[in-house]
Structure formats: structure tokens, C-alpha cells
Amino acid sequence: MAAPTLFPPPPMDEGSSGPPAPAPATLDLAPPPQEPEPPLLRRRPPVRVTSEFDSERRLFSHRFSCRVLDGLAKLRLRVSHAAGGGGIAWGPPDFALLARNFSVVVDPASRGAVLRGTADLAGSLRLRASHNTKEKQGEVSVTANLGDSPCKIELSSLVPPNGLPKATFFFPKGEVSIKEKILDEGDRILSVNGLVKSHVLNGVCTAVYNDNAMNIKYRYKDDEISFIPSISLPSNSLSFAFKRQLTPSDKLSYWYNFDTNYWGATYKHKENKHLKWKAGYQSDNRLGYASLWVGDAGGSTKEVPLKAKVHFTLKVPQDNVQNSVVLVHVKKRWDF
Fold this sequence. Notes:
Blueprint: E1 47-54, E2 59-68, E3 73-84, E4 87-90, E5 94-99, E6 102-107, E7 112-120, E8 125-132, E9 137-145, E10 152-159, E11 166-171, E12 174-182, E13 188-200, E14 203-210, E15 213-221, E16 225-233, E17 237-247, E18 250-257, E19 263-272, E20 275-282, E21 287-294, E22 308-317, E23 325-335
Antiparallel strand pairs: 1-2, 1-23, 2-3, 3-4, 3-5, 5-6, 6-7, 7-8, 8-9, 9-10, 10-11, 11-12, 12-13, 13-14, 14-15, 15-16, 16-17, 17-18, 18-19, 19-20, 20-21, 21-22, 22-23
InterPro entries: OEP37-like
GO cellular component, one term: chloroplast outer membrane
Region (Disordered): 1-46
């Protein structure tokens, strides 16, 4: 016997009771409405304004910068004015266009501009050039890597040239340069300068030779102590610096020069990354001082709370305490 066939129930009449049948779902294929494109003035790049005040020079400075050309370059305008009693004296502004391999800095006060550029040439050659339009003088240099070694050589010359180009040889532990030098009598000689670093007895020894004078400095440092003696030849001038990390937040520094008997000492306390103070004394200036930083003293304004840094300094001359002065330096940033 065959199974009975099941039919769907007949639709209800308007007068019949019961819930109405649900409407079939429909798929909306209409595209979402497009937002209107913002006007040109609203599509401007973000502008950053950095303002600084230096009470020692009684000077305000303001720097305006923004990214242009899809972030490939930065446009900068810097203006300053003095906070004198006779009113505001505005200084000449300077304008700059800064990119990775090219920059232009315009100084309207001197009616000149400085152009700098770099370019990678064939192989491992790198070209650098600069030109000052006011002085009508520039410099060009070419740097080349020596094969696969970390050593490289650089040739640089003034434009227009006034002598032989300068040659500098760079190697992992220092550099040596040879250039032409003009003496007071007008004679031209070849001058050799150099710098060499080497690890000696758990420290770093650095020797710098320049214009027939050499300075030898040794630096030993561990987690708690830094000791830095140095001697200059042929004057045999000897000095040293000593630093002691008392706690993770406290450091004591001391330096002494044996030729002049000048010395100095500084005590630093770091409460946290954005708050620290220090106090010290310098015998050559006969000056005591104390400073307070609010904001990372060594960092940029983008890394500190409220994007600001404040630095207070109290200077007390030993010979005349009444001439003590409090200096303030403030740096604040706004993003628009």
C-alpha cells in the first residue's frame, strides 16, 4: 500500500483566525550609499606645532610642520620672537622642505638657501652634495664600499675646488683621513688625522689624532661604576671622570683636571622616566646649580605625557649669591 501524499496547508482567508504567514525574505542588492568626498581644505595633511620658550634668552620659537607628497617629504616653517619689554620683536622666519634624499632650507634674512641631496649610484657608490646659494660654495663627496668588507673609502671636495680632495678611509675600529692644509705662510701641506678604538682590559680605549695633537681616553664601565681617564699629548694634560650608580634611581658624577685643579660634581635622581632632578657644582665657574625636568629630558615631545617638557634651573654664583637666577625652558607640541 502506497504512503499517503502530504500537501501543504491551504492559505488562510482574511476572516480566518491565526497568525499571518511571514513574508518571504528578500535580498537587497542595492549598493550602499557613498559618502561625499570631503572638500579640498578638509583633506589637508595634519599640522604639528611645536612651541618653545627660553627664559635665559627671553625667546619664543614656533615650528610648524606637516607631511606632503603622500608622506614622502616634510614641510617646515620656523619663526621666533623676543619677549622684550618694548614689545614683541619678530625674527626672520626660515622655510624648509625635507625629504629622504633631498632638502632645501631657505633663510630670507640672508637671502640664501642651502640645498642638500644624496643618491645611490651604480654598484656600492653613494653620492652626497650640498650647495649654499648665498656663499656660492658647495661640497660633493663619493663613498664606495671595498668589496664585501666593512671598510669603505670616501673622497670629498669643495665646489669650486680650492685644492686636492680629502680622502677618508673607514674601517671597523676607526678612520683615517688625509687632506690638504694651508699654513699661515701660504704653504700647502698634507695633514693626516685619525681615530682608533680598541677594547682593553674590559674597557674601550680611544685615540684621536688631529693637527699634531693626540688625545687618549680610556673608558671602563660596568653596572655600577664608570671610570674615564684621559691624557692629551704633547701637553701631557691629564684629567679623569668618575661615575657611581648608587641605586637604580640615583647617580653621582665627579670630574677633575690636574692641570687647572678645576673639578665638578653632580648628583642625579630619577623618579621615573618623566620626572628627574639634579644638583651640582662647577669650580671653574664657581657656580652651583639645581635642575628639575618634567618630561623625558632626552626624548622627543611625542614620548612624554601631554606632549610637553618643562625644565627649571636654579643657578647660584658662589661669589655673589644675590645674583642667583631661575631659568625656565618649556617645550609644548600641538597636533591639528
